Amino acid sequence: MSGNPAATASAGSLAEAPVPVAAGERGLSVSQAMSKVMEKGKTAFIPYITAGDPDLATSAAALRLLDALGADVVELGMPFSDASADGVVIKASAARALAAGATADAIMAMLKEVTPQLSCPVVIFSYFSPIAQRGMASFAAAVKEAGVKGLIVPDLPYAETSAFRDEAIKNELELVI
């Protein structure tokens, strides 16, 4: 047994657990968070989780817990059925999230509730197809409204890079390439 009560608590109880956030720490950009890490001469703690696996309430609790445990940035994967750049573990996680009914809109709604409580920025990892289906401008605006600070799009087509970067800048999102 770890002796850490948070490690043995159920996801439901974690959802209500208060998260200590230092004054002035909320709303850091990805660049600011990484600068803080570099100033301290530390290695960044950047965990990855798939949104909606096993459900959105657990994802919200996991975001709060990772923040409380000192994550510098959290990378949140948007589940996608054709995840070409992912390994078997993340593909399985995405399949579970999709089977549980995770949608982009539901994930954005969950993030809108959770991100104001976090001291670390959240970066969304998404493939380009769901972004293109929604529309780049609409996706970027929804991500900003959800309190997300950055985006990773591993299969962003070169021809779309400039337009997508413009939407990211317009919405104060850092595009991690």
Automatic annotation (TrEMBL):
Cross-referenced Gene3D superfamilies: Aldolase class I
Pathway(s) this gene product operates in, as recorded in its UniProt entry: Amino-acid biosynthesis; L-tryptophan biosynthesis; L-tryptophan from chorismate: step 5/5
Alphabetized GO MF terms: tryptophan synthase activity
Known catalytic reactions: (1S,2R)-1-C-(indol-3-yl)glycerol 3-phosphate + L-serine = D-glyceraldehyde 3-phosphate + L-tryptophan + H2O
PANTHER family: TRYPTOPHAN SYNTHASE, TRYPTOPHAN SYNTHASE, ALPHA CHAIN
Similarity comment: Belongs to the TrpA family.
Matching NCBIfam families: trpA
Name of the protein in question: tryptophan synthase
Organism: Triticum urartu
